[in-house]
């Protein structure tokens, strides 16, 4: 799963002890209530007009607070998201004490060290500056920057450096074109169809107004502050992975291991000497986003965009360079391009970025999965991810039934080609289905959409679960997800599926610190490097990418090496050896892969 680059983006409970009612516990995110807000006309006008926004804000504030009051939510990420919206509303209303109280609560709920340290830093600085006596209007931005820098200087750089780089990168590209473009192209079509937005989408209006009025005017200050902080702390994190990696030398009596990359497609020309061949061609199965058979090994680029592929690749590199805090021509172009978008350019720009990311994804994953293992043999199982701002196609029972049949076909393909390890760097949840239904105008009410989404999702989840469990001799490796949330509570698949031959992997960085984006949960039992990992992309260029998509194939790589050494190992035994050799961190949150130990354990088992 690629880390979404442009994803940028608390009063305490007020129920008194004597009057408080027991809160209802929910086990799934989909069980939380949904609300609907009528909107007449343009979404952008609601965000810009104080009176119209106030009406929406009051209803949204009431409903979000009611959920916090009434429900016990196991996933702290969900509670944090509710509180974050309420804190933005408080700030916009000038209720600074309430905003600070919510920020305190959010910080208490943060589980990752960097998140806890950086939580609410910008909003706190803005509130403190507004309240400081003698702060002139023309000195406000400078004072905010000074306060943010003071907070950063008190933090351990090694802990926060990745997150600060990401914050700086987001600040560099954000601008009114992106904020308003998202409203016009993502949300306005929903309003045009349904006359309103659900509580899944309405908080985006709060975030948009907060950014337009509060943080966007500080863009230059924020970028300069983060840049100066990073420039003053040029210390790279230690790399724990090189010392624990194992490269299998060629020419040994190791067994060939068939590996399938179940992803967006692979440029087989980059792996010519390590392909499984069927009928004189690379072993391949594929279905497009309409669930029709598609036997091209790479996701097709529409003919009208073929000439733009080099530009799209360059922009992916620009995003990556920004995340790495590199000043390159590609990074400069991306910053300028996105900051100066015209209204009619937004859709094409964002869809092209999504298309390019999907196009390169499977090849990048394959390069990680096969590295250092001359005994790995590759099969391609191609799926097609939608890249449009509005779903294309929309969810339907016909599509989900075809998908269920196709899942069985994929796994039959794996069995026929004696695949030992399958990498699955993709995911989805029941919430994704529900959101797509709303975007498509399917379902008259939130409750009706909720019921339809549950029906569709359960069909797909059950089909995938049956397929995985029905192939006990194949090890499936899943990415945990990039939502910084509990994948089990969200019902993410395949990450949350419980099967003895499924290994779910979260992401850390080169030093073993938890990645800001990585999801977690009961089924996540191993962690690998998923932060700025270099691999190949179609055409042979190299690119560094971040995401749990890059962590999962590290585990696939390790499993394939273990099977090359001892092909008698069963999936449950591979998982057991990996879990017995991980390095457990003191906080109990990370189980770091240790390839050298795991391979030594496999060699010892083979000799026994």
Structural account:
The chain has 608 residues and is an alpha/beta fold. Strands 8-9-5-10-11-12-13 form a 7-stranded parallel beta sheet, with helices on both faces. A two-stranded parallel sheet has the order 1-3. The N terminus is likely disordered.
Proportion of helical residues: 40-55%
CATH topology of the largest domain: Rossmann fold
Tally of DSSP helical segments: 22
Distance between the termini: 38 Å
Rough shape? globular
**In order across it, which strands form the biggest sheet?**
8-9-5-10-11-12-13
Q: Sheet with the most strands? A: 7 strands, parallel
Write the layout of secondary structure elements.
Blueprint: E1 24-25, E2 36-38, H1 43-48, H2 50-70, E3 71-72, H3 76-93, H4 96-109, H5 113-118, H6 121-131, H7 140-153, H8 157-173, H9 176-194, E4 196-198, H10 203-215, H11 219-231, H12 241-244, E5 257-263, E6 277-278, E7 281-282, E8 284-286, H13 309-323, H14 329-339, H15 346-370, E9 376-382, H16 397-416, E10 421-424, H17 430-440, H18 446-469, E11 475-479, H19 487-490, E12 502-508, E13 524-529, E14 533-536, E15 542-545, H20 548-565, H21 571-581, E16 583-584, E17 591-592, H22 595-607
């Amino acid at each position: 799963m690629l880390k979404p680059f442009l994803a940028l983006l608390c009063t305490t409970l007020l129920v008194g002890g004597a009057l408080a009612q027991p809160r209802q516990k929910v086990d799934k995110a989909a069980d939380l209530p949904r609300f609907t807000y009528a909107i007449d006309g343009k979404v952008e006008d609601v965000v810009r007009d104080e009176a119209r926004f106030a009406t929406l804000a009051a209803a949204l504030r009431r409903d979000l607070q009611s959920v916090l009051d009434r429900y016990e939510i196991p996933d702290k990420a969900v509670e944090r998201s509710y509180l974050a919206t309420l804190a933005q509303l408080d700030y916009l209303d000038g209720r600074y004490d309430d905003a600070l109280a919510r920020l305190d609560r959010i910080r208490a709920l943060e589980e990752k060290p960097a998140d806890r340290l950086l939580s609410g830093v910008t909003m706190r600085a803005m509130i403190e500056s507004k309240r400081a006596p003698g702060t002139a209007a023309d000195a406000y931005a400078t004072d905010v920057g000074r306060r943010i820098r003071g907070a950063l200087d008190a933090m351990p750089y090694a802990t926060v450096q990745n997150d600060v780089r990401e914050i700086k990168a987001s600040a560099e590209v954000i601008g009114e074109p992106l904020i308003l473009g998202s409203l016009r192209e993502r949300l306005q079509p929903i309003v045009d169809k349904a006359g309103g937005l659900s509580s899944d989408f309405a908080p985006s209006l709060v975030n948009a107004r907060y950014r337009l009025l509060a943080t966007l005017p500080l863009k230059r200050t924020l970028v300069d502050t983060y840049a100066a902080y990073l420039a003053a702390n040029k210390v790279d994190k230690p790399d724990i992975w090189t010392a624990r990696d194992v490269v299998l030398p060629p020419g040994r009596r190791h067994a060939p291991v068939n590996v399938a990359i179940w992803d967006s497609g692979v440029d087989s020309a980059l792996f010519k000497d390590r392909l499984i061949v069927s009928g004189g061609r690379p072993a391949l199965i594929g279905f497009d986003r309409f669930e029709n058979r598609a036997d091209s090994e790479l996701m097709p680029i529409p003919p009208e965009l073929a000439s733009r592929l080099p530009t799209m690749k360059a922009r992916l590199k620009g995003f990556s360079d920004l995340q790495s805090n590199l000043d390159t021509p590609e990074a400069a172009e991306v910053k300028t391009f996105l900051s100066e978008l015209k209204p009619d350019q937004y859709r094409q720009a964002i869809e092209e970025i999504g298309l390019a990311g999907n196009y390169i994804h499977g090849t990048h994953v394959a390069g990680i999965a096969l590295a250092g293992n001359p005994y790995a043999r590759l099969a391609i199982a191609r799926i097609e991810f939608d890249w449009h701002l509005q779903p294309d196609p929309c969810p339907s029972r016909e599509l989900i039934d075809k998908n269920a049949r196709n899942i069985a076909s994929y796994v039959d393909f794996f069995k026929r080609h004696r695949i030992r390890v399958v990498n699955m760097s993709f995911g989805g949840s029941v919430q994704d289905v529900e959101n797509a239904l709303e975007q498509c105008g399917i379902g008259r009410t939130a409750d009706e959409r909720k019921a339809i989404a549950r029906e569709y999702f359960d069909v797909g989840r059950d089909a995938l679960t049956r397929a995985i469990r029905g192939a006990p001799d194949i090890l499936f490796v899943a990415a945990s997800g990039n939502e910084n949330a509990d994948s089990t509570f969200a019902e993410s698949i395949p990450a949350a599926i419980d099967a003895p031959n499924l290994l779910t992997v979260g992401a850390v960085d080169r030093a073993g610190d938890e990645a800001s984006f990585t999801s977690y949960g009961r089924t996540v039992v191993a962690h690998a490097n998923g932060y700025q990992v270099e691999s190949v992309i179609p055409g042979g260029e190299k690119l560094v990418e971040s995401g749990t998509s890059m962590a999962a194939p590290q585990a696939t790589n390790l499993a394939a090496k273990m099977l090359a050494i001892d092909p008698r190992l069963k999936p449950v035994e591979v998982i057991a050896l990996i879990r017995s050799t991980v390095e457990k961190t003191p906080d109990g949150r990370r189980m770091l892969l240790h390839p050298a130990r795991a391979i030594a354990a496999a060699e010892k088992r083979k000799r026994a």
